[in-house]
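DUF4197 domain-containing protein, Trichloromonas acetexigens. Tokens?
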Amino acid sequence: MRALVACFLALSLLTSCAGGHPLDQMKSGISHFAEEKFRNSLAGQLVKGLGQGIHLVANELARPGGYLDNPLVRILLPPPVNLALGLIRDIQARPDVNPLLLVMNRAAETAVPGAVPVLLAALDQIDAIRARGLLDAGKTAATDYLKEQTENKLKETLTPVVMETLAKNSGLAQYGQLLATLHAQRQVRDPDPAAPPTFDEPQVDLADYVTQQTINGLFKAIGVEEERIRDDLDRTELDLPEMLKPAEKRP
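Tokens:
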């Protein structure tokens, strides 16, 4: 008993020398521990929610019109075609009237489900420490991390599907014809070989272009979903008892 009292007195002396009442320090320690525990839990929820969000986003983009009808992810004609005079304005107003645009976006809608296993595999590799770092980072930190980790693999996975869809629906042939038409028009307007080109060259590989735009649009949509998930987590944090809220969240 005497030993216990002595230990308590020694602890009291040490904590008082360090500044602050022992009870206050104990409360502070408990609060910090609870805060860390809670933040780690939120990090796990972010990763789990993003896994569910990836399924939702991919399903939405894979439906007919998933890319074409969504201005955030819609794939426009590549340069030099998209720089043809008046073409951008017309396509932005009525994207559904351009047959090549329809084929390109349909190729993206067909290919995008193949991205899900790649993304989920990368998500499974995120450990607790990495998850906490992503939680404490920017609004789309997890999305940015996934893109960095998977972009090359996604290109490898999606390109064959995009290529097959473009070929099956005459997209490659339409693109070649459109380029030939634009080239002929340029020759008529600018017979002088020294005249500046009216559209960018060299021409873009259509399959590579559509694949990259498919991936870019996918991550744009996942980023929006991540921001929504984080907003939900922030609202959860607001319901915490005052002593357990992170210091930067307290009034």
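Residues 29-249 form one domain.
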